[in-house]
Predict the 3D structure of the following.
Amino acid sequence: MTTTNTVPLQRDPELLGQTVVVIGGSAGIGFETARRARGEGANVIITGRNPQRLQDAGQELEAHSTAAFDANDPDALASFFDALPSALDHVMVTAGGPHYGRMLDMSRDQARVAISDSMLVALDVARHTAGRVRPGGTLLLMSGTGGRRIGIGLGIASAVTAAMPALTASLALELAPVRVNLIAPGFVDTGLSASILGDGLDARRAELRATLPIGRVVGPEDVAALAVHLMTNTALTGATYDIDGGQQFLS
């Protein structure tokens, strides 16, 4: 009888020695992406608005550094980038979130903030990454698949969701050879989802488990895996990548 010894497959970390910046990296998708990047050998720099939560996240990740500020503050964002190392490898923007409500009921300031939280922050970050992210590095932006639906109460979120792929593709041309891609999750089981749904969270989870083609709820670690793949696959730029477990195909 012949016996075969199985040798565990080993590989080098895919982001070894690279610097990954996650704006909005103290919780949820941003935190899990920073964790995965750290596991792949990256030096991670994370930001967040809540100083204590950011400090805790930074310690858990053994982050290279952290910075507490609101990404919607252009002066604070500029100061943050000015203080960074001269060469970066990947920048991901997860700060902000969707703004729901009837458009005609929104004030001008509310509408401006709803747009700024996604598109203007993305554009500001893109300006700061120009000449700072190495060729072949990545700028990763966030959108969503749920916002593609049109309905009363979804107004600004739907408009921003429709615009983000075009913004991403245009930035991919202007920032080349830096690569720019857009991640579009559906429902992701994060603290942000919990704050939006409140008492309806458990019911939403149960509904998705019963109806999604994948038979489970998408978690932040799923999105993090996609994000790191987009960082490491240097053939990908200017595209939108859905990750919702098939949620958008449900009626």
